[in-house]
Design a protein that fits this description.
The protein is an alpha+beta fold. About 25% of the residues lie in helices and about 30% in strands. It is built from nine helices and 17 strands. The strands form four sheets. Strands 9, 10, 11, 12, 13, 16 and 17 form a seven-stranded mixed β-sheet that branches. Strands 3-4-5-6-7-8 form a six-stranded mixed β-sheet, with helices on both faces. α5 links the parallel β6 (about 135-140) and β7. The longest helix is centred in the N-terminal third of the chain and has 15 residues, at about 80-95. The chain is elongated, with a radius of gyration of 27 Å. The chain starts with 6 loop residues before the first strand and ends in a 5-residue tail after the last helix. The relative contact order is 0.12. The model is unreliable at about 190-205 (pLDDT under 50).
């Protein structure tokens, strides 16, 4: 059944219905949504408007949500019932083929001079996921739709879990003020958040890895590890639980690491000089001589309760710093990569380029 929205003015104990005005609404909706895409019911980052496809059409709006899923937003305008659903799915099938570089290029055309990572961080207060466009959602925007379009959308959504829906907007005017009301054809709380071939596209949608760069989180603690030690003696470390140290053991000798202090910024770029070792067994090259780390003059504490077990011990990886700076000189910028893992492959080219430039290094 088609959605009917009504608006009444309550005045003096009586209700007066306000009649919707359709003139000009659909021509204005694209601009309304672009200026505030949250009008569609969730925070979105618009990445393109009137985006040309590979098949001769133009997508009205493309947007990312906070998970990195891609939203294809198509306005009904004067399309026929057959066209509005078919065109949305056609554009969706094209959008599903977009890789990370395609997404970057679309956004660069839409917002020249602004990195997608920065815009994403500004919009959602979080780092852009390594993988984007692993799923898509399709939204038809309309003041009204005919029974055929409604039937097609419900059939796809409710019977086959295709994430397609219609959002209705009605325009009301009352005593010189304008109002926009919104409702959905399929209840959003029941709509399946289907992922279309997400696993098969996993490698395509992430940025390629250059095979050498790694991100390392140097998690400072008030009574634990301290960056001044890592900077002075050349190491990164993590521990106090297997999940904090396990990924450090993946760092290969010769890899380039970008050291990051959570909530502070990037403080060092260096080359892995040895394999991970327990803190109480680790040795470092200091002034040309091998020294036991535990015998050095350290500001931090690297022992943990129960660290007789390897899983609870602090693990240390020696690093030859190419450039390392104190916390006060940490490199910070909206959109730089950050991750909860102690060590992970660094694919984010925006971060690599910005940090190496800030440190005066060649990328």
């Amino acid at each position: 059944m088609a959605v009917e929205m009504g608006l009444w003015r309550a005045e003096g104990g009586q209700l007066s219905r306000i009649v919707p005005v359709s003139i000009g609404l659909e021509s204005q909706l694209e601009g309304y949504i672009e200026s505030d895409p949250s009008v569609l019911g969730e925070p979105l980052l618009v990445i393109g408007r009137q985006v040309p496809t590979a098949h001769g059409g133009f997508v009205d709006l493309l947007a990312l949500d906070e998970t990195g899923s891609l939203h294809v937003i198509e306005l009904k305008r004067d399309k026929t019932p057959r066209d509005v659903a078919a065109q949305t799915l056609d554009y969706g099938s094209w959008a599903a083929t977009l890789g990370r570089s395609d997404i970057d290029n679309i956004f660069a055309t839409y917002r020249p001079g602004l990195a997608l990572e920065e815009a994403f961080a500004d919009r959602f207060g979080d780092t852009l996921p390594e993988e984007v466009n692993t799923a898509q959602e399709f939204t038809i925007v309309a003041a009204s739709v005919d029974n055929a379009t409604e039937r097609i959308v419900r059939f796809l959504n409710e019977d086959f879990d295709v994430p397609i829906n219609v959002v209705f907007f009605r325009h009301f005017q009352d005593n010189g003020s304008s109002y926009i009301a919104r409702s959905w054809l399929v209840d959003q709380s029941e709509q399946a958040k289907s992922s279309i071939s997400a696993i098969s596209r996993k490698n395509k949608t992430r940025e390629p890895w250059n095979g050498s760069d790694w991100y390392v989180s140097f998690g400072e603690e008030p009574t634990g590890r301290q960056w001044v030690d890592g900077m002075k003696y050349g190491f990164v470390s993590g521990g106090g639980g297997k999940r904090y140290s396990q990924t450090l053991k993946n760092l290969p000798i010769g890899a380039r690491v970008f050291a990051y202090i959570p909530k502070i910024g990037y403080v060092g770029v260096g080359t892995v000089a040895g394999e991970a070792q327990r803190y109480d067994q680790s040795t470092l090259l200091v002034n040309g001589a091998e020294r036991q780390l535990r015998e050095l003059d350290l500001s931090g504490n690297y022992r943990h309760e129960g660290d007789e077990s390897d899983d609870n011990a602090e693990w240390v990886v020696p690093v030859e710093w190419i450039r390392a700076v104190p916390q006060a000189q940490a490199v910070r910028k909206t959109g730089l990569f950050a991750n909860q893992n102690t060590a992970t492959r660094l694919r984010n080219q925006f971060t690599i380029e910005h940090v190496t430039a800030a440190f005066g290094l060649d990328s």
